[in-house]
Known about the structure:
Elements: H1 5-20, H2 29-58, E1 62-66, E2 70-73, H3 76-82, H4 86-95, H5 100-106, E3 110-112, H6 116-130, E4 135-140, E5 148-152, E6 155-159, E7 172-173, E8 179-183, E9 186-192, E10 195-201, E11 204-215, E12 225-233, H7 246-249, H8 265-289, H9 296-299, E13 300-305, H10 312-323, H11 328-338, E14 339-342, E15 353-355, H12 356-362, H13 364-383, H14 389-395, E16 398-399, E17 402-404, H15 405-411, E18 415-418, H16 421-431, H17 433-438, E19 443-445, H18 452-458, H19 461-471, H20 474-477, H21 492-517, E20 526-531, H22 540-555, E21 565-570, H23 578-595, E22 604-609, H24 614-620, E23 626-629, H25 641-647, E24 651-654, H26 660-667, E25 673-674, H27 679-687, H28 693-698, H29 701-709, H30 723-729, H31 742-757, H32 759-771, H33 778-790
Parallel strand pairs: 1-4, 1-13, 4-12, 13-14, 14-18, 18-19, 20-21, 20-23, 21-22, 23-24, 24-25
Antiparallel strand pairs: 2-3, 5-6, 7-11, 8-11, 9-10, 11-12, 15-17, 16-17
Helix pairs in contact: 1-2, 1-4, 2-5, 6-33, 8-10, 10-11, 10-13, 12-13, 21-32, 22-23, 22-29
Ligand 26W is lined by residues 114-117, 120, 257-259, 261, 306, 344-345, 350, 352, 419, 448, 636-640, 658.
Amino acid sequence: MFKSQAIFQNAYKKKFSEIAGKKYEDGTAWEQYQTLVMLIMEQIKLNWNQTNCNNAVNKKKQVYYFSMEFLIGKLLPYYLTNLGIGEVVQKGLKVLGIDLDILIDQEKDAGLGNGGLGRLAACFLDSMAFMGIPGHGNGIRYQFGLFEQKIVNGFQVEAQEEWLKEGYPWEIKKPEKSVIIKYFGNVDTVNNNGKLTFIHENYESVLAVPYDVPIVSYDSNENINTLRLWCAEPPADRQDYEPSCHQSAISHVLYPDDFSQSGKQLRLEQEYFFVAAGLSSIIQHFKKHNNSIFDLPNKVAVHINDTHPALCVPELMRILIDEEGIDWEDAWDITVNTISYTNHTIMPEALEKWQLHLVRYLLPRISMIIEEIDKRFKQDISSKNLANSELMRNTAIIWDDEIRMANLAVIGSHSVNGVSKLHSEILKNNVQPEFNTIYPHKYNNKTNGISHRRFLMEANPGLAELITQAIGEGWKKNSFELNNLVAYKEDSSFLTRLSEVKFRNKCRLQEYLFKTQGIKINPNAIFDVQVKRIHAYKRQLLNTLKIMDIYNLIKDHSHFTDVQHVFIFGGKAAPGYHYAKTIIKLINALAQKINKDQDLNDQLKVVFVENFNVSIAELIYPAADISEQISTASREASGTGNMKFMFNGAVTLGTPDGANVEIRNKVGDENIEIFGLTSDEVINYYRLGGYNALNEYENNPRLKIVIDQLVNGFFPDIEKEYQIIYNSLLEENDQFFVLKDFNPYIEGFNKLSLHFKKTESWQKTCLTNIAKAGYFSSDRSIKEYNQDIWRVDNTR
Ligand code: 26W
């Protein structure tokens, strides 16, 4: 591809005039960007088609990753690196007087996700393509992404995220592959000589139109997978519909809450929409190339990313029974053997439940099937003498006139996994112990991973180059080779270069923050970073109370350090999550107070980075010194930010939660700061109904001061602005153990701050973190998913 700069330049000029009908010099930056993407699309098309043909001819098993979210970020810079054409393109454009960075700026992050779950899906697509696994994404092409976050007077303000406004040149619309999705109506049951058939009548149709995006991974040009995103349109015979009509509303906007279950009918419509469209296109494709539908589990793996696509279970049953004419028992075997499920949260608020009457009304045939699955499951466990009342209550799919999606997912799939060792144990032993006795063979762990090519190779080119100079390029394809860096632990010139790279990355972030938010920070300071969704359980509050305490000590003259600290926060709060939004306001109020306080001599700075997204994340992780992973133990299923920081040599300050535990096992206690209650302790407290938060408050003078400051006029805000935070700690007895973990947290933080001053020792710790990060590449996760669950032969 583009063997020389001249070839690229000519192709570019030609393509430009084809697309824009004028000379490239007269084009807008958007037109220049669009041309570049179209040119790349043209180059990869052949391999993309070829991948599909090869898969068909070789009858390779295909993996379909169903996810409500895919947070793929920007594709242009990543694909240039992956295709190995970054330099040719950059230099070629430069000769034409075009700055590649300006073109990259034109691309909007595809904000098709909320947070960890969506970014995990994107990393998994990357690793599947890299490893030659025919693995495709199936999701929704939301017209509007999550939302764009603006901070106005310290408050989060949400603006529509119009990522598609100018078009998205990476997608190809495939109208010929559209599918009709049926909602509402009634089901007529007809008895044909003893065989029941089900006819769905009086339904409303929605057209699902697929848009395909190519998934191009590093050095694996010959295997280009597909992310298929479905867009809702009115059906062909109803083109008179207003564009705002019910039908097209389905793919309008991503549900912006990644926490509480909501009874929104629209979300249920969305879930059925991409499930039914995806399965229909999979079955059509399968039937074209295979003779027997009984072969489905050998040729197709359907993976459901959390319960949002759990309607795959009844929908696949519906297709097999109503359309393929298979009897229930066989259909059930095929379904269970085809589907596998990952759980991403044990928070009860986030476990999806749908009102039975809503499902009956919206999806009449699907609800019949769910009720039948529920009935047969109950009969089955009774016949095996497994039933007792607690087991019946906890495992039922339908209970209290609600459908519990997690139970449907467990019963309807052959594999159930958690996303870190700790989370998988909690899931199996504490959340679903009854299912674990019924189906012990289903439970397994797949610790999350992240694309180290995206978050190290691309995001941190300085570090990537330094690593490559030391140990060669092998680590890009085999992340475990990073371990060879251990040999450089005593090499002081290498350690110096490592700190120089970090310094440059901190300058890069400093420039960005000055340009976008007008904030000045000192790159010599410790960058202590907490970036993730804002949630009570992630405890941004604990971090804030810590900063208030440090501030108080400095003001009190009882504390002076010669290390400066910059505390960086970033993340979005769900628009309806008042508490989380108040936390954002509190952080900004603290930033205001601290940043302008002359007494502090710049010892402290607090920054809330606006609109945290994949692109901004790529600037932040490489610049971090301390990675804040301070969730209430047992609540964070895994975390993946922790891994992104680790690959970039930041040191974790965290609780023994999620994958933090595994990070500690890899780097050793001396290279991480783990503090606070363990998950067992937290779970025990929950069982006992909590702990005595008031006690902590009353017996800890420094803590008492900061808590009082929330409500005593310390912040010049409207009265009672932070009362709900104060109340959450004292009146509601601190459900997330913020006060209980306060002292150990401060201790851990102080240790890391002191360590930072011992430059060489600190750099060794950073190096160890990078060297031991290899395990947390999504390549490793995907390898395990494939070996244990999907079983696709990906040998070339
Ligand atoms: C119903 C709304 C909703 C939407 C999304 C509820 C719950 C979710 C997700 C399950 C939330 C999520 O993103 N979970 C995160 O998944 C990551 C990837 O496995 C983990 O690393 C995080 O610990 C987990 O919080």
